[in-house]
Design a protein that fits this description.
The complex is a heterodimer of chains A (554) and B (331).
Chain A (H helix, E strand, L loop, with lengths): L1 E2 L21 H4 L11 E5 L19 H5 L4 E4 L7 E4 L7 E3 L4 E5 L14 H10 L25 H4 L5 E5 L2 E5 L7 H4 L28 E7 L3 E6 L17 E5 L4 H10 L7 E3 L5 H8 L2 H5 L1 E3 L5 E6 L9 H10 L2 H7 L6 E3 L25 H10 L6 E7 L2 H15 L4 E7 L1 H9 L7 E7 L5 H9 L17 H12 L3 H18 L2 E7 L2 E3 L4 E2 L16 E2 L3
Parallel strand pairs in A: 2-11, 2-12, 16-17, 16-18
Antiparallel strand pairs in A: 1-18, 3-4, 5-6, 6-8, 7-8, 9-10, 10-11, 13-20, 14-18, 14-19, 15-19, 21-22
Helix pairs in contact in A: 9-11, 10-12, 14-15, 14-16, 15-16
Chain B lengths: L1 H4 L1 H21 L4 H4 L7 H11 L5 H14 L1 E3 L6 E3 L6 E2 L4 E2 H36 L4 H15 L2 H15 L15 H35 L2 H8 L4 H29 L3 H6 L5 H10 L3 H29 L1 H9 L1
Antiparallel strand pairs in B: 1-2, 3-4
Helix pairs in contact in B: 2-14, 6-7, 6-9, 6-11, 6-14, 7-9, 8-9, 9-11, 10-11, 11-14, 13-14, 14-15
Classes of the chains: A alpha+beta (554), B mainly alpha (331).
Chain lengths: 554, 331
């Protein structure tokens, strides 16, 4: 999972951006249902680097990395549907035994790398093992704490092999976990579960030249400028249910200014007709597109997805009192916050922790206060708590957008007599303060999109006691033994429906303690050229599904 | 000779700058290892990442390692995944998985192309306009040149760049809107892609030079030796070109040296707007991701360029004003 930001700063957050966003009805009319084969698709990206090393990558399954590398399982993302975990290299999404502590996968027949050699389970084991090496840190490492021996394993370069991953034959792989974990099929869709042939592993060069298993291979990599993907002759569409492999070539133009990229796509001339933008359309260009019928047709906005919320540091002063935190639930002006983030186009008001598009989500509102809050109710709760002159510090990033959002919160709370002082700081300082061990703040606006579409990803990283400090994202410092037990129980449940019910229960139980105020489910907007089709953005993840994009035959 | 004599001073300045960059960086609350730790990041994993990158040592130790690496090269990690940074090693970017030395060499041509062409253009336009305005002082030419230069001095390059792209790139579809083509690949495409950034930068900077040149020229034209030159019956063109301009150029060259040196270290905003990955773009990315080796590398390289530009300016002085050279050699 990751902390997400509004429109502006996302442009800088490197490879995360390489994903895409939300589905839109306007697009369906001219979509020919995946018929288009051939052509050169261009992706305009603000990031200056693409890291293809699966151990170091935090890429979503449906974006850049997914074009080149296959995993044990992957995501089926379709417009208007909730995300599903589906087999990729494996024949199914895993079989649990030993009460969910042992997971077995079998590979499909006839799988080959781009060089024609066969993909084996030993390569997947090796791929997972190398993700433990400190030299290759930086990727998504949920598996590291789950596998037996993972806490101390140092990777294959210095630490030998990891005994809790067994490969009885070339087609079978068995993972042995410390405790039951129902979401293991999702974990097996993380980048680290990509096969890496040991003989071809050059850790220093792998990030630019990985051994391809998907429809494309990296044919040229110009650092900071462009990356070109061409067809992998040994990819067999019959073994792949999620990738269509439409264009003959995919070119990533890197380091593109977000404004200029949006202007190019609005102008829609020449090769830009075959292009789409990997980053969000900036607010100014959104307004411009409103006035331009052609561009408006090519704008794709996601369903409401990632959660923006106001975190209340539950270990600080008056905020230790649940009554005070509940008062803030009523005092916040969510509608003003929504306006500050671009109005209804920027997202819908939120009342729950599990976000739309995640299976098992239950809609509810514990603090019904209308769109602008209930100031009288807030004042009453504050009085009951004996707080007459509450004063809080709001830690905010110092860019214009973040400050506007902070001011919307400040003005809302002011109505209930709560004085908020905004403390601006740069992005890195804010992240370090919120997730580190010196949490010198009372409240902060943050946002979150899970790394995989399970309610687990909405709840555990933000509210489990184990995620407080040390880089964890429980920035409210919320700790409740009952919730921790619910989380443990849900994590260990292998039946998806039963697990989802437990997550929904945890969602409500947490908000009774009011450690955060849910503000908004964010929407992201993306723009594509007139020749691009099958371009959609679902609710989760709120990024385009690169694997399905095709070009019209000219 | 002059350049050699200044070498110790140049090296001293660079050492002080690198030391300051290191010190300032370590006063920041951000932990560079945190950003390379991945998600979820456990304290153990963080410590391992930190140790691999060498960020677990005290900052002065890291600084000494950095200095040592320039001479002897550096080595990170162990086994097959170990990283070798050959001398002269100015650090290793773990984010980009590349030695800083190579990153600098890769990106410098982009910035040099932007800065070199633009500088030539603004020098010609600026000095030309300044001379013309001074000679035709008080006329419509003078007034319009100065009005334009006021606009140029005041306009932010980000705005002018974007407007330029909108007008010439999108509306008129005359020039490419961005991207860099290496000179070796195609000299024509190289220049074609650079025309817009050159023009934007040149127009903005030429304004300063036009004002400076005009002011100096008016002053010089009032000097006795100009009157003498005219009295000798020299042609006006020769009076202005040979006797006037030569003296005007001394302050112009001083400013030009500083401007060019600064710009060579990274045309940050221009590179951003025109999607060209030069030193400026490299630095901005590095600051955003707490990539210390790259920050130190680009800072040092930029400082070196400014210093070199100043040394060159001093050398040019002796050509423009023979007295400077003579004084130096006679001592």
């Amino acid at each position: 999972m990751r902390r997400t930001r509004g429109f502006t700063a996302v442009a800088l957050s490197a490879m995360l951006l390489m994903a895409g966003c939300g589905a839109n009805a306007a697009d369906d009319s001219d979509d020919a249902g995946g018929a288009g084969k051939g052509g050169k698709l261009t992706v305009l990206s603000a990031s200056t680097d693409i890291n293809f090393d699966p151990a170091k990558s935090q890429n979503l399954a449906i974006t850049t990395l997914g074009l080149v590398l296959r995993r044990l399982t992957t995501w089926d993302i379709q417009p208007g549907k909730t995300a599903q975990v589906v087999p990729d290299l494996a024949t199914d999404t895993g079989t649990a035994s030993d009460d969910g502590k042992t997971w077995t996968f079998t590979l499909k027949d006839g799988l080959k790398y781009a060089d024609g050699t066969a993909i084996t389970t030993a390569d997947i084991k090796y791929g997972v093992e190398r993700s433990f090496a400190a030299e290759l840190s930086g990727g998504l490492g949920y598996h590291k704490g789950l596998l037996i021996g993972g806490d101390t394993y140092q990777g294959p370069y210095t630490g030998g092999d990891l005994a809790s991953i067994e490969t009885p034959d070339d087609k079978t792989i068995v993972f042995k976990l410390k405790a039951a974990y129902g979401d293991w099929p999702w974990i097996a869709s993380m980048p680290a579960f990509t096969p890496v042939p040991k003989a071809k592993d050059d850790p220093k060069a792998y990030s630019q030249n990985p051994v391809a298993s998907g429809p494309y291979q990296v044919s040229s990599y110009q650092q900071g400028t462009a990356v070109t993907l061409t067809r992998n002759p040994n990819w067999d569409a019959a073994t792949d249910s999620v990738r269509t492999g439409g264009p003959d070539e995919v070119v990533f133009q890197l380091g593109q200014d977000a404004t200029v990229a949006a202007q190019r796509l609005i102008a829609d001339s020449g090769d830009d007709r075959d292009a789409f933008g990997a980053g969000f359309v900036p607010p100014a260009q959104l307004a411009q597109i409103e006035q331009n019928a052609s561009a408006k047709q090519r704008l794709v906005t996601s369903d409401a997805g990632a959660l923006s919320y106001l975190a209340l540091n539950t270990r600080r002063g008056a905020l230790k009192d649940v009554k005070v935190r509940q008062a803030i639930q009523y005092a916040v002006d969510k509608s003003a916050y929504q306006v500050a983030t671009g109005g209804a186009a920027g997202g819908d008001l939120a009342t729950t922790l599990i976000t739309p598009g995640i299976p098992g989500r239950a809609e509810y509102d514990l603090y019904p206060a209308g769109e602008s809050g209930d100031v009288a109710k807030a004042k009453q709760l504050l009085a009951e708590a004996g707080q007459t002159a509450l004063s809080l510090t709001l830690l905010s990033e110092n860019d214009q957008q973040s400050l506007a959002e902070a001011q919307a919160i400040q003005q809302g709370l002011q109505r209930a007599g709560i004085t908020v002082t905004i403390k601006p700081a740069d992005e890195t300082t804010v992240t370090d303060t919120l997730t580190g061990d010196k949490p010198d703040f009372d409240i902060a606006v943050s946002s979150w999109q899970p790394d995989f579409p399970s309610a687990n990803g909405n709840i555990q990283p933000l509210f489990a006691t184990s995620e407080i400090g040390g880089g964890g994202y429980n920035i409210s410092r919320y700790s409740n033994a009952e919730v921790d037990r619910l989380i443990e129980q849900a994590l260990a449940t292998t039946d998806p429906a039963a697990a989802q019910a437990l997550w929904a229960q945890a969602d409500k139980r947490i908000l009774q303690d009011a450690p955060v105020v849910p503000l908004k489910y964010n929407k992201n907007s993306f723009l594509h050229g007139s020749n691009v089709q099958n371009f959609f953005v679902a609710a989760f993840p709120a990024y385009p599904n690169y694997l399905k994009v095709t070009l019209k035959n000219r | 000779m002059t350049a050699l004599k200044r070498l110790p001073g140049v090296l001293g300045t660079l050492v002080v700058i690198s030391l300051l960059t290191f010190a300032v960086f370590y006063l920041l609350p951000a932990d560079p290892a945190q950003l390379s730790c991945g998600r979820p990041c456990t304290p153990d994993r963080l410590a391992q990442a930190s140790a691999f990158m060498g960020y677990d040592k005290p900052w002065f130790q890291q600084y000494l390692d950095f200095l040592g690496g320039i001479v002897t090269g550096r080595h990170f990690g162990a086994g097959r995944a170990a990283v070798d940074c050959a001398a002269p090693c100015f650090g290793w970017s773990f984010r980009l998985n590349a030695p800083v030395t190579r990153l600098l060499l890769d990106r410098a041509p982009v910035t040099f192309s932007i800065a070199g062409g633009a500088a030539l253009l603004w020098l010609v336009i600026g000095v030309g306009a300044g001379v013309l305005a001074a000679v035709r002082r008080g006329t419509a030419i003078d007034r319009s040149a100065m009005l334009l230069s006021t606009v140029g001095v005041s306009a932010p390059s980000y705005l002018v760049g974007l407007l330029g792209i909108l007008l010439f790139g999108f509306t008129l579809d005359m020039v490419p809107v961005g991207g860099y083509i290496p000179l070796a690949e195609s000299p024509v495409d190289w220049a074609w892609h650079l025309i817009l950034p050159w023009t934007v930068l040149a127009l903005l900077n030429a304004a300063v030079y036009a004002r400076l040149t005009r002011g100096q020229m008016i002053e010089v034209l009032g000097e006795d030796y100009i009157r003498t030159a005219r009295a000798k019956g020299l042609r006006e063109r020769r009076v202005i070109g040979r006797h006037g301009l030569r003296n005007v150029l001394i302050p112009v060259v001083t400013v030009f040296g500083l401007d060019l040196g600064t710009l060579l270290g990274g045309a940050v905003i221009t590179e951003r707007v025109f999607s060209m990955q030069g030193l400026g773009a490299l630095l901005i990315d590095a600051v955003g991701t707490v990539d210390l080796p790259v920050i130190v590398g680009v800072t040092l390289f930029s400082a070196l360029l400014v210093i070199v530009a100043n040394v060159l300016v001093d050398l040019v002085y002796s050509v423009l004003d023979p007295r400077v050279g003579k004084e130096t050699t006679s001592r």
